[in-house]
Amino acid sequence: xxxxxxxxxxxxxQQVCGQSDDxxxxxxxxIDRAVSTGDQLDLRAAREAVDRLDAxxxxxxxxxxxxxxxxxxxxxxxxxxxxxxxxxxx
Length: 90
Known about the structure:
By secondary structure, the protein is mainly alpha-helical. The protein has 5 helices and no strands.
């Protein structure tokens, strides 16, 4: 079973790569498959596809994924160990 953080990572990766014309279709397809199935082999294939991107593009993509995850307040709230249930303060 995937950790919720892993699920969010791959969903964010899918969004970022889907918005970039520089990411090749094979990489996008691998990420799409990983998000849709959650299968460990598909997740590994997606990670390997991202690893094959040229270094500057890979860095740009991962920087944007990290920024989006770090500023996703619902994810931050859900990850807090003492957060009461799914109730959010606002």
